[in-house]
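Thread: quick sanity check before group meeting

JM: Hey all, I'm pulling together slides for Thursday and realized we never actually wrote out the predicted structure for the chain we discussed last week. Dropping the sequence here so it's in one place. If anyone has concerns about the input, flag it before I start.
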Amino acid sequence: MNDKKTIFSGIQPTGCITIGNYLGALKSWVQLQNDYNCIFSVVDLHSITVRQDPIALRKRCMDFLTQYLACGINGEDNLVYFQSHVPAHAELAWILNCFTYMGELGRMTQFKDKSAKHADNINAGLFTYPVLMAADILLYQTDLVPVGIDQKQHLELARDIAIRFNGVFGDVFKVPEGYIPKEAARIMSLQEPTSKMSKSDPNINGFVSILDDPDTIRRKFKRAVTDSDGEIAYREGKDGINNLLNIYSAVTGQSVEDSVNEFSGLGYGTFKERVAEAVVEELRPVQQRYADLAKNKDYINKIYTEGAKHAAYLASKTLRKVHRKLGYVDR
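JM (edit): ok, ran it. Output follows.
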């Protein structure tokens, strides 16, 4: 790699990629790839903390990676690969488990939330999930990690683990920083606008998939929760309207203030229609690229195969250093 800083980010192949993922992460990743060495992984190892249908998981993994590329990620100039294709992720995770305290993992908010949702399957992988995430990041001597508010706690743990390991063995891991693009949008559920839009939401009207057809998109926005005020304004207590304004502004690139002015005096019905049309037009080229890429299996295979090969090379350099520090016999 060159002298550019390295960014690592991954997305779990669960549910579908939503406009929340697209506007809050993928769109900014596309901009980042010109200025950084970017490593984008479909983190399939993380997905099995809950039971998966193997056939469905395999298909989703391929769909997610194809959607990465359709959204504008350049798979030839950046590393795009499946996490499970680079065994060093799992190997380093085991090592880092031995430098992570039970109390730290027990305090993870996401573990508590997922344990409540999957009370019949509170497995060790769910508990140590953040350690695998730390391995994902530290393997590549990552400088910056794009994170949302819900992942900041995990990044802090990764930093703590790196500092702890370095404190014992010297300068082994780069201590990563969080990266939160100023323009990144936080997109909420269309049905519960106080909750983040989730690709695994059981209510299909709560999210818009980037592959939803135009009529489906229009229907979901038509059903979006607003309020009874009848005023298009951005302020506390107007969560549904605020969310729609955030979506419109993220898609059009204009400020929320300008969006409010644009819709001044209009009714909610017209407002929701206009937001829906803006989203339809934003996603049209993405969906066309996806359709084209989905027909080119050889190209997709080449991207993730070469991506994994290069990622494995970079990961092996870090792993060799870790092995040497721990006292393992050279391979």
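AS: nice. Residues 297-326 form the longest helix (30 residues). The mean pLDDT is 91.
JM: adding both to the slides.
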